[in-house]
Amino acid sequence: MKAMKKRLFATTCEGEDAFLYTLSNQNGVQADITNYGGAIVNLLLPDRAGKLADVVLGYDTLAGYETDKAYFGGIIGRFANRIAHGRFTLHGVTCTLSRNNGDNSLHGGAIGFNKRLWTAKEISSNGAPALELTYLSPDAEEGYPGNLSARVVYTLTPQNELKIDYSATTDKNTVLNLTNHSYFNLAGQGEGDILGHGVTIHARHFTPVNANLIPTGEIRSVKGTPLDFSRMATIGSRISADDQQLKLAGGYDHNWIPDREGDRALVLAAEVHEPGSGRVLEVFTSQPGVQFYSGNFLDGTIRGKQGNVYQRRYGFCLETQHYPDSPNHPDFPSTELQPGQHYRETTVFRFSAR
Ligand code: BGC
Asked: Is residue 218 flagged as an active site residue?
C-alpha cells in the first residue's frame, strides 16, 4: 500500500481549511479527494497503452467547488435527485424542504452535502488506501428531520476500483438517498463530448418522468426504446431520436432499475467503454437505481480544470441511488430511515482498459 498524501486545498469562505487527499495504487491510478463536499477532484487512469489521463470534470480551485452549480464530483445528500414541490409526508408529518430547482428540491436543497466541510480521517482497509469522511447534519437542515450522522468511505483497491461505502444513522424518522455526482469523460476531462462512449446498462426497466423530471410513478420497460442499453450502444447513437422521454429531459437523464435477484447484493449496473483510449468503467452497486445523465445541462459556461470549457455533453454521470422523489411514491423502494436503523449502501467504480 502506498501512503496517502494530504495537502491544503485552500481555505473556505468561512475560514476553514479544506484538504486534498491523494489515494494511489501500484498501477498508477490516483484519486484526489477533498473533504469539501467529499468531491473527487482528479482521477488519473491509464489507457490501454498505460498513458494516464484525468477522467473526471471539476475545478482547479476550492472556490470553483464553493460556487459550483453542476455538482461536480461531490457527495449528494440528503436526497439525491428531485423531490417534487420540495415536500413529502412521513407518518402524517409534512416536511417542507428548501427548493432550489424551480418548485422542486434537487440534490439536498440550497446547501447540500456537496457544499459541507466533512471531517476527514485516513484509514485503510485490506491494505488499500481509504479516506473516511463524516458529517453531522443537524435536525431540520434544508428541511429534513432528524440529526443525521453520515459517513462515507472512499477506498482505492489494488484492482483499480474506487469503492464508496455510505452509512448513516438518525435520531428521528427521516428519508435519505446518498450518491456521488462524478462526471466522467473516459477520454480525459475537456477532451470533447462523450457521445462516442459505448454504454451498457443491465436494466430492463426505468422510471419515466414528466416535464419537471419528476417520476410519473410508472415502472416502464426499456424495450424498443432508445433507453434500452441492454446491449452496448454509444451514447450518441440514439440521443436525438424521436422519443418523448429523451425530449422531456433533453437527452438521457433518467433512473434505470438494475436487474437484481437479492435485495442487497452488489450488482453490475452499467459498463462504459471509450473506444479511443480503451478505458472502461464498470459500476457495481447495492442501490436499487442508477441515474444515467448525459450532461445535457452543461452549456459551455463552466471553465473547469486547466482552463477547459465544459460544453454540452462533455461528461456523463452514473449516480447510484434510490429512485428520485421516492418519498412521494409509496410503491418505490423505501428511502425512510428510522432511529435504530443503520443505512448502508456501497458503490464500486471499477476501471480497466482494453
Ligand atoms: C440530474 C440532472 C441535473 C444534474 C445536476 C443529475 O443528477 O438528474 O437533471 O441537472 O444532476 O446538475
From this structure: no
- Residues 6+ positions from 52 with CB-CB distance below 8 Å: 28, 30, 44, 45, 46
Distance from Cα 293 to the centre of ligand 1, integer Å = 7
pLDDT tens figures, 224-253: 999 999 999 999 999 999 999 999 999 999
C-alpha cell at 184: 466522467
With cell 477547459, the residue in question is: 308
Q: How far is CA 177 from the centre of its chain?
A: 11
Q: What are the beta bridge partners of residue 350?
A: 161, 282
SS3 content of the chain, % helix, strand, coil (to 5): 10, 45, 50
**Per-residue pLDDT tens over the stretch 180-197:** 999 999 999 999 999 999
Give the three-state DSSP class for 123.
strand
Structure-block grid coordinates of residue 330: 409509496
319 classed as catalytic: yes
The 8-class DSSP code of residue 62 comes to: H
Residues in the chain where the model's pLDDT stays below 70: 1-3
Residue among 17, 7, 57, 65 nearest 37 (CA): 65
Is there a contact between 189 and 54 (Cβ–Cβ < 8 Å)? yes
Please say whether the beta carbons of 103 and 77 come within 8 A. no
Ligand 1 pocket, 71 CB below 6 A? yes
Distance CA(265)–CA(30), nearest Å, equals 27
Q: Whose CA is nearest to atom 11 of ligand 1?
A: 81
Cα 341 to ligand 1 centroid, rounded to whole Å: 29
pTM, 2 dp: 0.98
